[in-house]
Amino acid sequence: SATIIDGKAFAAGLRARIADGVTAFRTQAGRAPGLAVVLVGEDPASSVYVRSKGKATREAGMESIEHRLPADVSADALLALVATLNTDPAIDGILVQLPLPRHIDEQAVISAIDPDKDVDGFHPINAGRLATGLPGFVPCTPFGCVLLLKSVLPSLSGLEAVVVGRSNIVGKPMAQLLLRESCTVTVVHSRTKDVPAHIRRADIVVAAVGIPQMIKGDWLKPGATVIDVGINRTETGLVGDVDFASAVDVAGAITPVPGGVGPMTIACLLRNTLVSAGRREGVAVDEAMLDRAGL
Ligand code: NAD
């Protein structure tokens, strides 16, 4: 039976290292790192995410600045807020919680954020930096996935990796990160002709689809490392995109849902905010220490 990758424990360790880094930053910079979170409307899932991000930010010793705007706010008003946050010296990270109401052009808002405060890593400049190997900000969920992979695999170099899903938030940056780790990367998606055939060759499977328990154990190569990004609410509770019950007998290591990738996302957001603060204030932040593979 597979090793269960304990994302909750890994994220707790990462958050403890971040809190130490924040203490050191505060001593040198004379202020705390600041993360601004903007929530438009009252989508229940988004409200929960924003609340837990605020809590985690404060627990790490950082300043959480939350802006709640009504669902009918104009695009101009939202863009004006982003512009203010861009120039506010106390703000190191800006996160606009997605999805935005339909009358607002999401891409325009993302592009309005200062790329050097874009701790979500969604700005096209940061996507380009990731693709070209320049330092920037990497989207939190795929970044967390790489940390989990490195916690169970001594080296990713040369491994066959299959990413299921091609979203801008998870699938595409995941593929770029795996390429950066010298994996041989395949991205499969809704138009792929034979998804199981690709997955059968994979040493690493990263599932980011949003279809409950789509990937079955008998699709996996024995011993494969399986990272399940999916968070699907079903009658029986939260399940991933991987059929855990059948996969756990075939995989070498696998993330559970919940308790796998989920906790890593917020931890990596805090990590990016501390790194941003360090870059902006010229204070050294030990990224290798933050990103180390052990607990
Ligand atoms: P998305 O809907 O934007 O993208 C889904 C992708 O899956 C698309 O690229 C699509 O082509 C592909 N797809 C759809 N049907 C497919 C099929 N039959 N075979 C292969 N590919 C198929 O979703 P997303 O934002 O990337 O999120 C994916 C999942 O991850 C969701 O369950 C979401 O809730 C979860 N998620 C979790 C976290 C976290 O923190 N753990 C963060 C983001 C997203």
Low-confidence stretches at least 5 residues in length (pLDDT < 50)?
Answer: none
CATH architecture of the largest domain: 3-Layer(aba) Sandwich
Number of strands: 11
The CATH topology of the largest domain, please? Answer: Rossmann fold
Family: Belongs to the tetrahydrofolate dehydrogenase/cyclohydrolase family.
Protein name: Bifunctional protein FolD
InterPro entries: Aminoacid_DH-like_N_sf, NAD(P)-bd_dom_sf, THF_DH/CycHdrlase, THF_DH/CycHdrlase_cat_dom, THF_DH/CycHdrlase_CS, THF_DH/CycHdrlase_NAD-bd_dom
Subunit structure: Homodimer.
Please describe what this structure looks like.
The chain is of the alpha/beta class and 295 residues long. It folds into two domains: 29-114, Rossmann fold; 140-262, NAD(P)-binding Rossmann-like Domain (Rossmann fold, 3-Layer(aba) Sandwich), CATH 3.40.50. It contains eleven helices and eleven strands. The chain has helices spanning 7-29, 44-59, 75-87, 106-112, 124-132, 140-152, 171-180, 195-199, 244-247, 262-281, 287-290; strands at 3-4, 34-40, 63-69, 93-96, 160-164, 184-188, 204-207, 225-228, 232-234, 237-239, 253-254. The strands form three sheets. A six-stranded parallel sheet has the order 1-11-8-7-5-6. A three-stranded parallel sheet has the order 3-2-4, sandwiched between helices. A two-stranded antiparallel ribbon has the order 9-10. Helix 2 crosses helix 10 and helix 6 packs across helix 10. The longest helix has 23 residues, at 7-29. The radius of gyration is 19 Å and the shape is globular. The chain starts with a strand and ends in a 5-residue tail after the last helix. The mean pLDDT is 97. The site of nicotinamide-adenine-dinucleotide (NAD) has 24 residues, from helix 10. This is Bifunctional protein FolD. It catalyses: (6R)-5,10-methenyltetrahydrofolate + H2O = (6R)-10-formyltetrahydrofolate + H(+); (6R)-5,10-methylene-5,6,7,8-tetrahydrofolate + NADP(+) = (6R)-5,10-methenyltetrahydrofolate + NADPH. Catalyzes the oxidation of 5,10-methylenetetrahydrofolate to 5,10-methenyltetrahydrofolate and then the hydrolysis of 5,10-methenyltetrahydrofolate to 10-formyltetrahydrofolate. Its EC number is 1.5.1.5, 3.5.4.9. Belongs to the tetrahydrofolate dehydrogenase/cyclohydrolase family.
